[in-house]
Design brief:
The structure is a single chain. With 519 residues, the chain is an alpha/beta fold. Helices cover 42% and strands 10% of the residues. It has helices spanning 7-17, 19-25, 34-43, 47-55, 64-68, 84-99, 133-153, 178-186, 207-216, 235-244, 267-282, 300-304, 323-331, 348-351, 353-363, 382-389, 407-417, 453-469, 487-491, 493-518, and strands spanning 61-63, 111-113, 165-173, 193-202, 224-227, 252-254, 288-290, 313-315, 340-342, 369-371, 397-399, 425-427, 476-478. Strand 10, helix 16 (382-389) and strand 11 (397-399) form a beta-alpha-beta unit. The mean pLDDT is 94.
């Protein structure tokens, strides 16, 4: 039976299911049972019990990922449940841990680690209300600020000020929560709860605000930095960032679209690019790099050759790579270590088929995720593709939306994909024969939905049947027309929508005023 519960876990569920009784009895509970009771409460969404467990936490650390992960008592991993009730109870419980005067236990808690929480598309919690990374950032910042105000205004037990807890979190900052996060980070020294930023994602921020807040986060601790969408960072700003700030532990870097554009390069820009490469070479932990939608033609070697640590993840989708770039990648020491590779938006069969397959063969023993969207892969290329993918026995994810493949070719490919033992997720294109005759690729957004939906459903059923017949119902196959699910974008789409409308309005106003001047 799946996810078997131990007798201990069943007893824990029974104990926490009566919230009133459980809360009264916590004082008599052995310390080593707190983690067990926490996971049981989380599963049953017993917010009040969760709050009281955290408020009276008797151990040195509180690690969300470990507490909710697979345990001997209950194998199911609950760390992808971002249940609003549970998470809010956790964080307010943490605030009240600091304020709790009557706690019978000595306050031992030193580290709270919230980084193990995973944001996923489908939620299983009963309340159906999630608290994503942005909202967690917002709530923790607010609690830290409120806590300080309260401590300054109230006659507190002197012991309260001796409490010092490092709270490890992945921060997500946009213009809408910027002020609140800045206030919390500025007062970090005097607050008992100390925000320690392990990963930082920024979207919809002016460069001035971005540069200010990134310094406050203590970059020496930062493992992951994502600068995305509406942060207008260009190459000279990136050079400035790397010159001013050191990121000794940085493992993962994501840059916004159009950071680089070699089409309008001057000699000075070439020097800037060289400097950026050198600075990245000093980041000895860097193993993940994403720089999609930049124009990097012929410059991949300049940027990546200074790196001393092999990359495990590389996203150079829509970067206008040429043959020299692909040859560098195929022959570089990175090739044997790449676990995730995204080359979307390049006409692979036309530009560099043999070099691409050389790269694929080099990373085949470790490759887990491959994305080849809009790569002009046609029916005539499928046999070659199968040959290239055959050694990739660790492949878990293959995404190839937007390629002009027929239903017949997809069936042929799916029959092969069944043989990849680790495969879990496939994103396949709408078959070419479902679109009107004469459609051109890459398909623009306006035409992407103009296919025969009934025919597509029939083909999708046949493809799923191929998986079923091969006993591969563990593989999820889908066609997300507008890209894969992104929890961060999903959570902030109201703000991003408002930003787009605002910039559209500003553009219109500029156009109107210049038009009026002309007339």
């Amino acid at each position: 039976q799946d996810n078997m519960k131990s007798l201990r876990f069943i007893s824990a569920e029974a104990f926490v299911s009566n919230a009133e009784f459980a809360r009264k009895s916590l004082g008599a509970v052995a310390h080593d049972l707190f983690p067990l009771l926490f996971k049981a409460s989380y599963l049953l969404e017993q917010g009040e019990v969760i709050h009281d467990l955290v408020e009276n936490w008797p151990l040195f650390d509180f690690n969300m990922g470990k507490l909710l992960g697979a345990t001997l008592d209950y194998e199911e991993d609950l760390s992808h449940r971002t249940c609003s009730v549970c998470l809010e109870s956790c964080l307010t419980g943490l605030r009240d841990y600091v304020l709790n005067q009557s706690s019978p236990y000595m306050k031992k808690l030193k580290v709270v680690d919230l980084t193990g929480i995973k944001d996923v598309e489908v939620q299983f919690c009963k309340c159906k209300k999630t608290m994503g990374r942005w909202a967690r950032t917002q709530l923790l910042s607010k609690l830290c600020s409120d806590l300080l105000v309260y401590l300054q205004q109230t006659q507190c037990n002197p012991g309260t000020f001796e409490v010092s807890i490092n709270v490890l979190i992945d921060l997500f900052v946009t213009d809408w929560n910027y002020e609140l996060v800045v206030q919390a980070l500025l007062k970090k020294c005097s607050c008992p709860l100390k925000i320690c930023c392990v990963a930082f994602r920024s979207d919809n921020l002016t460069l001035q605000k971005f540069f200010y807040i990134i310094k406050l986060t203590d970059p020496s601790l930062l493992r992951k930095l994502e600068i995305v969408h509406n942060v207008h960072l260009e190459m000279e700003h990136l050079e400035m960032l790397f010159n001013r700030i050191h990121f000794p532990l940085l493992m993962s870097l994501t840059l916004p679209a159009r950071t680089f554009n070699v089409q309008r390069f001057t000699a000075m820009d070439e020097q800037t690019l060289t400097n950026i490469g050198k600075k990245m070479g000093e980041m000895t932990q860097l193993t993940e790099l994403s720089m999609s939608f930049s124009i990097l033609t012929g410059r991949i070697q300049k940027l990546l050759s200074p790196l001393k640590t092999p990359l495990k993840m590389l996203d150079v989708s829509n970067c206008s790579l040429n043959h020299a770039d692909m040859a560098f990648l195929a022959n570089s020491f990175h090739a044997n270590h790449l676990e995730a590779l995204d080359l979307s938006g390049h006409d692979i069969p036309e530009l560099y088929p043999s070099t691409f397959f050389k790269l694929l063969s080099h990373c085949s023993s470790v490759l887990r995720s491959l994305t080849l969207e809009d790569c002009n892969i046609q029916d005539t290329h499928v046999n070659m593709l199968i040959l290239g993918l055959s050694p990739c026995q660790k492949l878990q994810e293959f995404k190839f939306i937007g390629n002009p493949l027929s239903s017949q070719a997809l069936k042929h490919l799916f029959t092969f994909l069944c043989e990849l033992p680790m495969l879990k997720n496939v994103e396949f294109p709408v078959p070419r024969d479902c679109y009107p005759i004469g459609i051109t690729y890459p398909i623009d957004d306006a035409s992407v939905c103009t296919f025969d939906h009934q025919k597509y459903e029939r083909v999708a059923e046949e493809l799923n049947f191929i998986l079923l017949q091969a006993n591969r119902d563990d593989v999820k196959a889908s066609t997300p027309l507008f890209g894969s699910y992104d929890a961060a974008v999903q959570e902030t789409n109201n703000e991003l929508g408002a930003y787009l409308i605002k910039s559209f309005k500003e553009t219109l106003e500029k156009f109107t005023s210049s038009f009026n001047k002309m007339s």
